[in-house]
Structures are given as C-alpha cells and as structure tokens.
Amino acid sequence: MLHVQNAGEALYIACEMEKRAIRLYERALVVFADGPCQEAIRAILHDERNHLQQFEALGAQAPGFEKAQLLSAQAAEVLFSGGLMEAQRKGAFASPKALYAYAAAEEKTAIERYGDFAAQLDGDASKAFAAIVLEEKQHYAKFSTMENEEQ
C-alpha cells in the first residue's frame, strides 16, 4: 500500500500513474505502427488522457522537487513498472485481445491503489478517490469485455 500524507500527494501519484500510461501507449503507437493493435492502442490512450485530465481538474499540484521525485518513484512502481519492453515481453501487443487483457490487469492495479487512497484520506478527498475507483472499475469492465469479444 502506498502511504500518502494528504490529498495533494495522492493526486500527484495518480497523475504520475496516468502519465506513465500515456507515455507507454504513445510509444506503443510508434514502435508497433504496423502491428494489429493500432485501433485498440488509440482507444486506450484516449481513456488514459481523459483520466489525467480528470485528476488534474481535481487540483493536483506538484510538490517540491525532492518530494516530487519520491512520489514519482512510487508511481513508477505501481503501473507499467517495466515500461514498454515489459509490456512487449508479456505479449501485450500480440493482438487486440492480449492488449485488452494487459490493460485490464493494469486497471485492476489502479483500482487497488486508488481504493487505498480513498481509505487513507478523509472528507472530499476520500469521496473523490472513491469516485475515481468507480470509474476505473468501469474501465476494467470495458477492457475485460473487449478482451472477451476479440477473436
């Protein structure tokens, strides 16, 4: 469990997690330009960009340099810890079905982390992360459904 001192730290980590996802899928569009997953990558990238906008709208602000480095490192351990190469080793870009399975697993991890934040925080911050968890659950369900619909 990631421990945060306040809502600002939780939002900063959430933004960093989403930025990691965006960078991974942006690079995947370039590296796997001729692969079978272009449409799926674009759809997932769109969702991740929306997540980031929502978190930024909640007022996420960068802490001081040292604290930002620590929080960024924590975020890097949560989602996409091995980056694009690890995703490729896991076969994420072999087919749209594999990509949706990979994305669903990452969403499940995000649900757990954001749920931890909701439990650690109080008041409006806790409610905001509880709402984010619900949205992440919808994305998880969407990716799971898409995975099962792919050939």
Please provide a written account of the structure.
With 151 residues, the protein is an all-alpha fold. Helices cover 78% and strands 0% of the residues. The termini are far apart. The mean pLDDT is 83.
Average pLDDT over all residues:
83
Radius of gyration over C-alpha positions, nearest whole angstrom:
15 Å
Helix % is over 70%
Annotation field: number of helices: 6
Largest sheet: none
Give me the count of strands.
0
Quickly describe the structure.
This protein has six helices and no strands. It has helices spanning 7-31, 38-57, 65-78, 83-89, 96-120, 123-149. The longest helix is centred in the C-terminal third of the chain and has 27 residues, at 123-149.
Please specify the SSE layout and strand pairing:
Layout: H1 7-31, H2 38-57, H3 65-78, H4 83-89, H5 96-120, H6 123-149
Helix pairs in contact: 1-2, 1-3, 2-5, 5-6
Characteristics:
151 residues, mainly alpha, 6 helices
